[in-house]
Amino acid sequence: MQQRCEWCGDNPLYVKYHDQEWGVPVFNERKLFEMLTLEGAQAGLSWITVLKKRAQYKKAFDHFDPNKIVHYNKHKVESLLKDPGIIRNRLKIESTIGNARAWLELQQQKIKPVDYLWQFVEGEPIQNQWASLKQVPATTRQSEDMSKALKKRGFKFVGPTICYAFMQAVGMVNDHTTNCHRHSQLKP
After folding, report:
1. Nearest Cα to Cα of residue 105 among 76, 66, 77
2. Which of 93, 117, 164, 175 sits at 20 to 30 Å (Cα–Cα) from 143?
3. Which residues contact 49 (CB under 8 A, 6 or more apart)?
4. What is the spatial distance between Cα 25 and Cα 167, in angstroms, rounded to a whole number?
5. H and E: helices and strands count for the chain
6. Where are the domains of the chain?
7. Which residues does the annotation mark as catalytic?
């Protein structure tokens, strides 16, 4: 049996996410916006809750297309608040709309969101060497810098802890523990 990070457990949804997605470097704009949205939605909840609702999130939020989300109005927000397939929190839903606006403002300023986000790790995944989950930090200097920069640009639900979880998810850091089979697979 393959060794995995201890947070993964044996839930098939978690195992698939761990083995195929978590920590894999993402350079696709839509995917980065999706993960930023989902990490913000997770605030105060478990990641498995978000994973279980992910498919409905994609439908409800137009496959995370910021060009569509930016046009959501109060009627769309009310509709989303009634959707049991997503996390029905008004602040989180409204932050997704605001974040779409901030995302598009980056583009309007000729800033590529991919480059903007990856600058916090100098464009390359940080290769950590954690022996156990206890060693993995909740925040880092990079996640704090990302959080401050995103907040300054109008993003919400992007605190340092959320930013670090985002960085882990999209492969800006390799936080698979050294005993996990994915750790060495994700090294350059």
Report:
1. 66
2. 93
3. 42, 87
4. 9
5. 10, 2
6. 24-185
7. 17, 39, 47
Task: Summarize pLDDT for 26-57 with one digit per residue, the tens.
Answer: 999 999 999 999 999 999 999 999 999 999 99
Q: Which two tokens stand for residue 111?
A: 């800033």
Q: How many CB atoms lie within 10 A of CB 160?
A: 19
Strand partners, 173: 126
Give the CATH fold of the 24-185 domain. Endonuclease III; domain 1 (1.10.340)
What integer is the mean pLDDT of 182-186? 96
- What tokens does 6 get? 């201890």
Q: For the segment 89-139, what is each residue's pLDDT rounded down to a tens digit?
A: 999 999 999 999 999 999 999 999 999 999 999 999 999 999 999 999 999
What's the longest Cα–Cα distance across the chain? 50
Encoding tokens for residue 126? 């940080």
**For 38, how many CA atoms within 13 A lie in the half-sphere containing its CB?**
28
Specify the pairing of strand 173-174 against strand 126-127.
Answer: parallel
Predicted local distance difference test score (pLDDT) of residue 1: 74
Would you state the structure tokens that stand for residue 188, as one six-digit string? 């350059």
Choose among 73, 30, 9, 26: nearest CA to 167. Answer: 26
